[in-house]
Specification:
460 residues; 17 helices; single chain; 12% strand; DNAb Helicase, Chain A
Length: 460
């Protein structure tokens, strides 16, 4: 049996040390059983030992900045300190690919080592004929086999009574659409995920950007991930929300826009991070590792938005495409629960949703498992007339938090200005009256143009 990680290579050991810093849950599961002697590099051993000592004292792993400070304060030899700091930088920049394999392999290795230690102790008890200690054999083996087992969220019924009975025990983050926020009892809380369901071209990115902007304005750290949009387009959408100027007209008011953006930048202490990722190649585990790295670097993300979930690929290939889609959504939920995040994403409606006046959950493209996982599903539908009038029909088709089955007919939905207002829903009668008025205006406009052409012809 191998005695250390040397047979797995240098890159493996660097990735493992990275995961010990970045992934708090993983480090907690393995910290008590991983030993510095398992590494073949002197400086890897030093870094692990410092990490273990910090964990023993504070019940948490240090981030990379803290680790660097420990090196500077505790290692007096300048050359050694420099090499350790350079090694920490290597660990910090470790590749994300294959981290799940690294975690599983490391846990298996440590479990084998613990099992071997347990068997050696058991053999000694048997050899010495210590009959009164035979019960310890079972206990030793059981403990070795439980290395790395995760707590599945067991809660004592009498625990955390003060916070459970707190009036605002969920601490939700609003989405910025008052009518919907009321029905969601203030928005989504950490560990909860919401899904925007809409046909292509209706405004999924508009809603997600509005949610991101609202959370940032309230002081939360926000990560907005997208796969298909250009980062500059998303930036301009945020600038529109801050200034009220349409994206195409921002350049005409450059000085005003720059002034407003500078003011916000200087005033806000939190972060709104835009991240474009490659479509159809990123797994949820890779996304989770990137967020863990941000946390390790000192940015505690409160809200993550995925635009959109259909662009994330499953961890492993499966002949059952629908089952794979469900696993991606469950991975998103698990990530938000594990990292204590509010999660919002979007998914495409199927072909029948394109012409629907109200989009329902059964019109979700792909696997229905995506609908089963979400805490909240909000659908958006637009007929051609509604698109023309900057209106939409928004429905809460599922909610584990408050009332669902609520439909906001013909509410304001302006994609250019990112204005969404369920409070000013237009009745069907009012909608029809506005259509008639626009038709009359068009007729007048056509008559005026015809009259102008006739006058020009007579003049010529």
């Amino acid at each position: 049996m191998n005695k250390n990680f040397e047979y797995l290579g240098n890159t493996f050991q660097i990735q493992l040390l990275n995961q010990l810093i970045v992934d708090k849950e993983f480090s907690t599961s393995i910290m008590d059983v991983i030993e510095s002697v398992y590494f073949d590099n002197k400086y890897f051993k030093i870094i692990l030992q410092m990490t273990k000592e910090y964990h023993a004292k504070y019940q948490s792993t240090p981030n990379f900045d803290t680790l660097e400070q420990i090196v500077k304060s505790e290692i007096s030899q300048e050359l050694v300190a420099k090499i350790v700091l350079d090694t920490i930088k290597q660990i910090k920049d470790a590749p994300f690919e294959g981290t799940q394999f690294v975690q599983e392999k490391a846990l298996k290795f440590c479990k084998q080592q613990e099992l071997q230690k347990a068997m050696d102790k058991a053999q000694k008890i048997i050899t010495e004929g210590d009959f009164e200690s035979y019960d310890k054999v079972e206990s030793l083996v059981r403990e070795a086999l439980q290395v790395g087992e995760k707590d599945t969220g067991t809660t004592d019924i009498f625990s955390n009574l003060e916070t459970v009975l707190d009036e605002d025990f969920r601490h939700p983050i609003p989405i910025g659409i008052p009518g919907i926020d009321r029905l969601l009892k203030g928005g989504l809380a950490k560990g909860e995920i919401g899904v925007i369901l809409a046909p292509t071209g209706v405004g999924k990115t508009t809603i997600l950007t509005k949610i991101a902007n609202t959370a940032f304005n309230l002081g939360y750290n926000v990560l907005q991930i997208f796969f298909e949009d250009n980062p500059k387009i998303v930036q301009r959408k945020h600038f529109t929300l801050w200034t009220g100027i349409e994206p195409d007209n921002l350049v005409l008011h450059k000085e005003t826009v720059m002034g407003k953006i500078t003011e916000i930048k200087e005033t806000m202490k939190n972060e709104l991070i835009l991240k474009k990722l490659p479509s159809d190649s990123m797994t949820m585990n890779q996304i989770k590792n990137q967020i863990r790295k941000m946390i390790a670097d000192g940015t505690k993300v409160d809200l993550v938005l995925l635009d959109y979930i259909d662009c994330v690929v499953p961890e492993s290939s499966s002949k059952d495409e629908w089952k794979a889609e469900g696993s991606v959504m469950r991975g998103f939920e698990a990530m938000c629960h594990e990292l204590s995040l509010v999660g919002w994403t979007a998914t495409q409606g199927n072909r029948s949703s394109i012409s629907s006046e109200v989009v329902t959950t059964d019109q979700m493209g792909g696997s229905i498992k995506k609908a089963q996982v979400g805490h909240v599903i909000i659908s958006v539908a637009k007929t051609l007339q509604q698109k023309e009038m900057n209106l939409a029909t928004i429905a809460i088709t599922k909610s584990r938090i408050g009332k669902d089955g609520v439909v906001f007919e013909n509410c304001k939905f302006n994609n250019e200005l990112l204005e969404i207002d369920t409070e000013s829903s237009v009745t069907f009668l009012g909608f029809e009256e506005q259509q008639e008025e626009r038709k009359r205006d068009r007729v007048k406009e056509l008559l005026e143009k015809r009259k102008q052409r006739e006058q020009n012809n007579n003049t010529n």
